[in-house]
UniProtKB/TrEMBL annotation:
Gene3D superfamilies the UniProt entry points to: 3.40.50.2300, LytTr DNA-binding domain
Entry annotated with the keyword Phosphoprotein: yes
Protein name: DNA-binding response regulator
GO molecular function, one term: phosphorelay response regulator activity
């Protein structure tokens, strides 16, 4: 039986206080998914590390010698995600336009570090999931203890029935317990569109379209007033 390879996230520490850097290094070493590829005390060396390594996460002290933390970030074209470490809480607002995952106030408690890493992993997983969805022509949906594979090309339309959805495909109808908004997030808007609070349709499967309904598989589905602007295809 093959086990999935555990994820590894490359991170660097940019911190000019040796004790603070050491504490972060110890915390990082406790998480098997984090891999420390380098630590440094200034922005110049940090730029070099970013050129050498694929970095997913920077632990960044704001009070660096010469170039300050946010100035350094603004020089980067595609910055990795960032967890800011600082002894001063008043700087949080400054980084609002940057990819800041969290602010850790020194001295950093371990449980607070763990919370930050949780936020970081959530963002990375969400990004991975979106990329996977975009590249795939199918999705898996949990049904009890098993996962059901839905081929997107086979889907005609999805209808919502209270807390359930019915996915009508070429061959059968699948029923799952989930809100329609949740599956909507997983579908490409190039292929699917919401036409009503209760219906999502496959754009390519429309047989007839009028101002008030679309017809798919011989069935007339109503167009909700608020959805009209989105289906002028």
């Amino acid at each position: 039986m093959t086990h999935p390879t555990p994820k590894k996230y490359n991170c660097i520490i940019v911190e000019d206080e040796p004790i603070a850097a050491e504490i972060l290094e110890t915390f990082i070493s406790r998480d098997p998914e984090l891999h420390l590829v380098g630590k440094c005390a200034d922005a110049v060396y940090a730029s070099n590390l970013l050129n050498i390594h694929e970095v997913d996460l920077i632990f960044l002290d704001l009070h660096l010698p010469v170039v300050k933390g946010f100035e350094f970030l603004r020089t980067l074209k595609n910055p990795p995600l960032v967890i800011v470490t600082t002894a001063y809480h008043q700087y949080a607002i400054e980084g609002y336009d940057l990819d800041i995952v969290d602010y850790l106030l020194k001295p950093i408690p371990y449980d607070r570090f763990v919370t930050s890493i949780g936020k970081f992993k959530y963002l990375m997983d969400a990004e991975d999931a979106l990329l996977e969805m975009a590249e795939r022509d199918y999705i898996f949906i949990n049904s009890g203890k098993k996962q059901v594979k839905i081929i997107l090309q086979d889907v005609f339309y999805i209808e919502s029935l209270r807390e359930y959805i019915n996915i009508h495909t070429k061959t059968e109808t699948f029923t799952f317990k989930m809100p329609i908004s949740r599956i909507e997030e997983s579908l490409s808007s190039a292929l699917f569109t919401r036409i009503h609070k209760s219906y999502i349709i496959s754009r390519s499967k429309m047989e007839v379209k009028s101002a008030t309904f679309v017809q798919i598989k011989g069935k007339k589905l109503p167009i909700g007033r608020t959805y009209k602007p989105f289906i002028d295809l």
